[in-house]
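Hello forum,

I keep getting stuck at the same step: I have a sequence, I want structure tokens, and every attempt I make locally crashes halfway through. Rather than fight my setup again tonight, could one of you with a working pipeline run this one for me? It's a single chain of 511 residues.
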Amino acid sequence: MNSAEKNVTQNITQVIAASSLGTLIEWYDFYIFGSLAVIIGQQLFPSDAGASALINTLAIFAAGFIVRPFGALVFGRLGDLIGRKYTFLLTLVLMGGSTFLIGLIPSYSSIGYAAPILVLILRLVQGLALGGEYGGAATYVAEHAPVGRRGFFTSWIQTTATLGLFLSLGVIVLTKNLLGAKAFADWGWRIPFLVSILLVGVSIYIRMKMHESPVFTKLKSEGKISANPLKESFQKRANFKMVLLALFGATMGQGVIWYTGQFYAQSFLENTCKLDFNESRYILLWAILFATPFFVVFGSWSDRVGRKWIMLTGMLLGVVCYRPIYQYFLDATNVKEMQKTMLQTTSEPVVERGLVKDKLDSLVTTTVSKTLNNGMTFKESTIVITPEDVLEPIPEVQTVIKDVTLTGQSYIMVIVLVFFQVLLVTMVYGPIAAFLVELFPTQIRYTSMSLPYHIGNGVFGGLVPFIATLVASFAGSTPLSGLWYPIGIATLSFIIGAIYIDNKVDNNVMD
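Reply #2:
Ran it on my machine without issues. Output:
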């Protein structure tokens, strides 16, 4: 390697490090909300809201995704007019401020429905900010990268989304273990939101020292900056065709694979399979740890064989494998059935008495901890609600399973299956930044690539946890019914991408 090549490599390494840190922190800020959806739902809504609290919280979570395309338009336009650096510096400030303020919002018991409304507003600001962040970071790195290695260098940016989730899970588990479950559920859940302001401050300092993209600087010096990026992106037929191809043939399918493998998997294990809070997060942490390097592997491989079939193969494997994988999750955690033949020990019952909120009905909860002879443990609660305002009360009895822990082969197998889902994420997501930036000319690249990316990820992908959970709650549905949404979207995207994306587009050279 001569001195010139060495300087280029050092420069791109610094660009990647500076861009990735800020993007990592933004993803962390965005995803701690989803990782704490169950606890946040208990804080934002009435205590007797039941399952609707989780669905409403997931709806607020999804709202942040829905507005991401609008953020892509607003900040994409700014990025193409004033530059990449200052635009995604602004998005970082907005994201960090919103996350910090979520940690300060009082609970429902203090301010009523003002609590979820305020959180919704802040989630919308987060979504707008993230809509402008990714396109800027990916474009910035790609415009520094040498021809023939864009897949490799931009794949480092791709790792930040999953590493942001990894960081959020790690901070949450650490905080919960230090404070204890009760204190964490009461007020400790706010800490991951509040400490993010320190990370944002460091990232802002680093980004202030970054230089503008050389490709954009050259364009600006030549007076070739687009006067109206939105008009050029979406009113020119040839470019708009590429926007639609990027959305329906790539990012739509990539988005549902991403959010099924990393968010719905966690939600399903915790809320449907009733895994212990820490257990579900440890499983995802191990899976992410082992799978993350493959973002770079597939990104680099796409430089040699093209982006198209790596991404489409990831979609197809998701379509084929999701239902068998999630059926295994159900079978491996079906302790209600297992205890008929495998029950080993049962603890002394713990009885709690109280009243149903806003009613006179008495409530008695009897909880026992059980252990099966294969080492699995869980808690079984019998809840008896006795009406107090009727002449002949008929008690309502409910049995609830919670805090399931796996052991041995089943624990390892669940990690492997979640790892496989994250591996599919790396296949569809690792090459896609290079794929998108190579589709569009420099003067409208930020705007053109950001919109299909954030519609595909923010709308189609971000709605996976909400829609899948909602569908599974319908009368006559099964726990696996929610999977038809990501399977259907990934199938459609695979078909469109296989027909219309070709290697000439796939290996396009940026101007």
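The chain has a mean pLDDT of 83. If your local run keeps crashing, start a new thread with the error log.
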